[in-house]
Amino acid sequence: MRVSVVGAGVMGLAAARALAQREHDVTVYEQFELEHKRGSSHGSSRIFRLSYPDPEWVALAQRSYELWRELENESGIQLLELHGLVDVEADLSARLDALQARAVPHEVLGADEVRERFGFEYGDVERLVFTPDAGISLADMTVRTLASEARRHGAEIREHTRIESLDDVPGDSVVVTAGGWAPGLLAAAGVDLAARPTRETVVYFAGDPIASLIDALEGQFFALTAPGVGVKAGRHKAGKETDPEDDAEPDEEIVRTVRDWVARRLPGVDATPLRAETCIYTNVEEERFVCERHGRFVVGSACSGHGFKFAPAVGETLADLV
């Protein structure tokens, strides 16, 4: 088949690679350059984890993990660094049930153990859970590698090629992985994607590599290693609704909130912000993903702010839909 992919972020490139592997004729259209900073896939790292409070999400993460390793083996490039993950939440029961149901290795730890092993301060929490098969994916390197592998299998990637109308895109099938731009593009083609783009702020700090951390006690904060910089931290879904055409600056109120959280929970990290940047979340209800077909169009957005770790599995799913 002749397949077009609109959007060369991590999901579009994962789909393009999977489709090209199946010997389809694939062309990817990207309005900016590869590895641009305007969307959802840039930056040095993202959290990788198998830990979710729902067995279906855990199963999808496990399938993605297999495909991450396949991509590493094919390319000869390391894309995952597994320092482990600590989850903090008021009630761990659903998460522990899901991990046990899917046979994911994990440890239940007390605050003293977490402080000693990872340097996280949670003296106000009785139990935390650690999963060793977690850490970070190297985000920029992943985008670069997926593009290289897609091309190696025959895909063409056209940078600086903006799509104004999906109806004008050639192909037997058109995969739409345009992130925050997807709702508008799809609406003009008669497809409703009830997604809400928000602009999120992440903050960088000086520090040594750490285990990844997700703190769901008050909202949801996260921290992870940022190779070459130190530590990246943020507050999940704290950003305001945005027009993806805008190139807005980081939210200084979020920067201050994240700084205060780092000072409280990561005492080994210098809480003076080095810099901040933004990325776009494309959100739908219940943080679900949208992977569905509408005639010629296959929708691969949104991923509700937690999709990067699932990119190889989402790419496989979109290729199946094609």
Low-confidence stretches: none
Number of strands: 18
How does the helix and strand content classify structurally?
A: alpha/beta
Major β-sheet profile: 9 strands, mixed
- Radius of gyration, taken over Cα atoms and rounded to an integer in Å: 19 Å
Portion of residues in beta strands equals 15-25%
**End-to-end span in angstroms?**
9 Å
Shape category: globular
The total count of helices amounts to: 8
- Give the overall pLDDT as a whole number: 97
| Helix fraction bin | 25-40%
H/E topology pattern: EHEEHEEHEHEEHEEHEEEEEHEEEH
Tell me briefly what this model is.
The protein is an alpha/beta fold and 322 residues long. Helices cover 30% and strands 25% of the residues.
Q: Would you mind describing this structure in some detail?
A:
- The protein is an alpha/beta fold and about 325 residues long.
- It has eight helices and 18 strands.
- The strands form three sheets. Strands 5, 6, 7, 11, 12, 13, 14, 15 and 16 form a nine-stranded mixed beta sheet that branches. Strands 9-2-1-10-18-17 form a six-stranded mixed beta sheet, covered by helices on one side. A three-stranded antiparallel beta sheet has the order 3-8-4, with no helix packed on it.
- The longest helix has 21 residues, at about 55-75.
- It is globular.
- The termini are close together.
- The mean pLDDT is about 95.
Task: Kindly list the characteristics that best describe this protein.
nine-stranded mixed sheet; 322 residues; six-stranded mixed sheet; globular; 8 helices
Q: How are the SSEs ordered, and which strands pair?
A:
Blueprint: E1 2-6, H1 10-21, E2 25-29, E3 46-48, H2 55-75, E4 80-81, E5 85-88, H3 93-101, E6 107-109, H4 111-118, E7 128-131, E8 135-137, H5 139-152, E9 156-158, E10 173-176, H6 182-188, E11 196-205, E12 212-215, E13 221-226, E14 230-235, E15 240-241, H7 252-265, E16 275-283, E17 292-294, E18 297-299, H8 311-321
Parallel strand pairs: 1-2, 1-10, 2-9, 5-12, 10-18
Antiparallel strand pairs: 3-8, 4-8, 5-7, 6-7, 11-14, 11-15, 11-16, 12-13, 13-14, 17-18
